[in-house]
């Protein structure tokens, strides 16, 4: 029983003590007239208890003639009391004291039984909506010739030219669902496939195939990606596919002045319509007089068209590839940039985009996509529909066509709240999975899946003070000595190469053992390795490049730095020469890690450990792409060791099939051999710009 919160005030014991209803000794003489004035009496009474009140009221009413009766009553009462005393009866007063205290209840809540503890909720059903709980699973090894997927011969030839005969797993799954035909899915698509699985072609090919006969430029597809590099990558694929058609592909990334981009995006032309022109001029005059003028809009373009004409807007592109921030800017400020004709919306690298809600891009985009066209820009059909909105005529008017949304991500993210902002209709989830049972295990949280062709290694570098030397050692003795032919491993899973502690042939006492081999420029230029080294910042990338060139001058012509500050043209040139093999080592900050598609990167080296698991997955995902082999190396200090092994190497978040991250111990002596002095000199040369950790 719970105690009630409130209890009523109870009078003190003395006040509650029972008094006889009739005064025990009535007055012998006539009652005296009251000494107090009658006006004061009721006040005094109010303060007294109700029992006293009764006594005082009744006392004066006892008549004299009943005196005898009363005295008889008193006597008999005394007799009764005496009888009680003899019968050892407790006096009334004691009875009261021992009686259990009366619990008074007033308006307070009634005592309630203690609540029964609720059993822990263990759902026997999935809390996810059906489409997320039951995805369409596709094995990553599934490849189907493009010719069997109904791809038009025009595109088959293009693909063959690029050496693509078979569609990769994600393409085999997506193409039939996006192509008109029996297997077409009439709804939105969510695609979860690991990095480098060929997602770009999987969404661009069906869109471009559907638009290939288009003659009049109409904005039909928008592709949103998180970075400029990804825009360029998607643009390259789209341009290759569109070559030979009349389709126009454009970008909006902010690499050119906004006004220039606006002119490319929307073409303004004059349309003869005297009535409408007069209306618009009147509105413009009215606004000028009132002083409240529209910030941007159709009125601003009135001056640029001849008399009796009104401005009309046409899209400059059929397919627009853009970053979310720039897209929002255009939606808000570019007159005539309308999405009424958009039929495809692609959100690539959705996990990153939805995590960084640039200017509320998703909401702005959805409003423009699904909202009504502003009245000034309505075409004849839209005007008619608006006029007939509530009439029976509206049924006869063609419906606004649906937009097919394709949401892609390298991570399996079942985050309903974030996907909710994309307003998906009848969505279907396609998951490309690895063959191994562990890799294909369904998990509700974030699961990152690495390509099965990727080998991972990790090198402890002590306190990090000699990290550049460890890197150099790795480059000379592993990367440039061996071609990528697969790792030789000890029974413990540790990699063996010159200087490794696991190498039984190496001898601690021998200063020469495992010493770095010499590099020569000729063999370097022939080497097929392409190494992408990641640092924690742009500054770090520049410093490391400098340091490497001092430590090993042979590397200088083969090493370049890429930072987001590189201009677009410079970045493109850099990537092209890296792809062609003109240089071998590209040092980059994290900004370059996402979606950077450079074919045939053989090694990714995490010189600085990544900031998180997602970053690790995206960094190492730059190699082992499109079913090719690749290696990922991570240098970690003592303080980073626990995080790396617990979270990245052995944690359940990263799935790598039956493979493991191999720990490679390098002897400090071998690493610093003969280079200590050069290293000290190099650090001095950098004039303190290189910290101990660099
Ligand atoms: N059918 C194919 N056959 C062979 N290679 C292909 C095929 N399709 C695409 N590729 C190549 O695979 C690589 C990866 O493609 P893509 O960039 O589309 O992957 P992705 O899944 O978008 O990766 P990320 O998520 O890292 O951006 C590219 O170099 C591309 O040229």
From TrEMBL:
Q: Where is the Helicase C-terminal domain?
A: 520-672
Entry annotated with the keyword ATP-binding? yes
Start and end residues of each Helicase ATP-binding domain: 180-430
Acidic residues: bias regions: 504-513
Pfam family name, one: DEAD
Q: What is its EC number?
A: 3.6.4.13
Q: What are the entry keywords? A: ATP-binding, Helicase, Hydrolase, Nucleotide-binding, RNA-binding
Q: Region entry Disordered: which residue ranges?
A: 1-70, 490-523
**Reaction catalysis annotation:** ATP + H2O = ADP + phosphate + H(+)
Cite the record's Pro residues compositional bias ranges.
Answer: 23-36
Q: Which GO terms describe its molecular function?
A: ATP binding; hydrolase activity; RNA binding; RNA helicase activity
Q: Is-annotated flag, keyword RNA-binding?
A: yes
- Per its UniProt record, what Gene3D superfamilies does this chain match? P-loop containing nucleotide triphosphate hydrolases
The record's comment about this protein's domains reads: The Q motif is unique to and characteristic of the DEAD box family of RNA helicases and controls ATP binding and hydrolysis.
- Protein family according to the UniProt entry: Belongs to the DEAD box helicase family.
What exactly does this protein do? RNA helicase.
The protein depicted here goes by the name: ATP-dependent RNA helicase
Source species taxonomy: Eukaryota, Fungi, Dikarya, Ascomycota, Pezizomycotina
């Amino acid at each position: 029983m719970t105690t009630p919160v409130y209890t009523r005030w109870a009078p003190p014991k003395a006040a509650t003590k029972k008094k006889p209803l009739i005064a025990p000794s009535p007055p012998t003489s006539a009652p005296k007239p009251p000494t107090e004035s009658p006006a004061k009496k009721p006040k005094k009474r109010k303060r007294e208890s109700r029992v006293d009140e009764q006594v005082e009221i009744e006392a004066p009413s006892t008549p004299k003639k009943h005196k005898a009766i009363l005295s008889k009553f008193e006597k008999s009462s005394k007799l009764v009391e005496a009888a009680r005393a003899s019968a050892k009866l407790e006096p009334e007063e004691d009875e009261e004291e021992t009686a259990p205290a009366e619990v008074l209840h007033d308006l307070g809540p009634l005592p309630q039984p203690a609540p029964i503890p609720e059993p822990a909720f263990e759902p026997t059903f999935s809390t996810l909506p059906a489409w997320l709980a039951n995805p369409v699973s596709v094995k990553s090894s599934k490849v189907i010739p493009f010719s069997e997927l109904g791809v038009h011969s025009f595109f088959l030839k293009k693909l063959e030219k690029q050496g693509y005969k078979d569609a990769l797993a994600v393409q085999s799954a997506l193409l039939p669902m996006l192509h008109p035909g029996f297997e077409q899915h009439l709804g939105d698509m969510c695609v979860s496939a690991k990095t480098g699985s060929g997602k770009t072609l999987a969404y661009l090919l069906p869109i471009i195939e559907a638009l290939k006969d288009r003659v009049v430029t109409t904005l039909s597809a928008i592709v949103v990606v998180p970075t400029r590099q990804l825009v360029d990558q998607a643009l390259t694929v789209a341009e290759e596919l569109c070559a030979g058609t009349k389709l126009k592909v454009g970008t909006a990334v902010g690499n050119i002045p906004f006004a220039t981009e606006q002119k490319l995006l929307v073409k303004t032309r004059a349309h003869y319509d005297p009535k409408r022109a007069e209306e618009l001029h009147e509105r413009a005059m009215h606004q000028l007089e009132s002083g409240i003028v529209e910030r941007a809009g159709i009125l601003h373009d009135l001056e640029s068209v001849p008399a009796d004409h009104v401005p009309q807007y046409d899209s400059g592109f059929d397919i627009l590839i853009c970053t979310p921030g720039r897209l929002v800017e255009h939606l808000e400020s570019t007159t005539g940039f309308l999405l009424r004709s958009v039929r495809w919306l692609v959100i690539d690298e959705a996990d990153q985009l939805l995590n960084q809600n640039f200017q509320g891009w998703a909401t702005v985009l959805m409003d423009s996509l699904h909202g009504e066209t502003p009245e000034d820009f309505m075409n004849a059909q839209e005007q008619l529909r608006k006029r007939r909105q509530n009439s029976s005529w509206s049924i006869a008017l063609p419906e606004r066509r649906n937009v097919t949304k394709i949401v892609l991500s390298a991570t399996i993210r079942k985050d309903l709240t974030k996907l909710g902002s994309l307003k998906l209709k009848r969505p279907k989830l396609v998951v490309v999975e690895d063959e191994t049972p562990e890799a294909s295990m369904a998990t509700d949280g974030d699961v990152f899946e690495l390509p099965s062709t990727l080998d991972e290694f990790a090198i402890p570098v002590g306190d990090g003070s000699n990290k550049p030397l460890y890197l150099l050692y790795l480059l000379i003795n592993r990367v440039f000595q061996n071609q990528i032919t697969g790792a030789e491993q000890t029974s413990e899973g540790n990699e063996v190469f010159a200087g490794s502690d696991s190498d039984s042939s190496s001898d601690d006492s021998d200063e020469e053992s495992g010493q770095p081999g010499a590099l020569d420029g000729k063999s370097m230029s022939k080497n097929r390795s392409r190494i992408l080294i990641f640092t924690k910042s742009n500054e770090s990338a520049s410093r490391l490049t400098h340091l490497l060139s001092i430590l090993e001058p042979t590397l200088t012509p083969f090493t370049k730095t890429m930072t987001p500050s590189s201009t677009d043209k410079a970045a493109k040139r850099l990537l092209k020469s890296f792809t062609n093999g003109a240089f071998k080592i590209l040092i980059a900050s994290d900004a370059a890690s996402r979606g950077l598609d450079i074919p045939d990167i053989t090694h990714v080296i995490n010189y600085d450990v990544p900031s998180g698991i997602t970053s690790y997955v995206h960094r190492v995902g730059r190699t082992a792409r499109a079913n090719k082999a690749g290696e990922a190396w991570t240098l970690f200090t003592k303080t980073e060791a626990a995080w790396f092994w617990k979270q990245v190497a052995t944690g359940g978040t990263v799935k790598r099939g039956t493979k493991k991250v191999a720990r490679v111990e390098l002897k400090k002596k071998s690493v610093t051999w003969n280079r200590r002095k050069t290293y000290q000199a190099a650090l001095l040369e950098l004039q303190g710009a290189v910290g101990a950790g660099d």
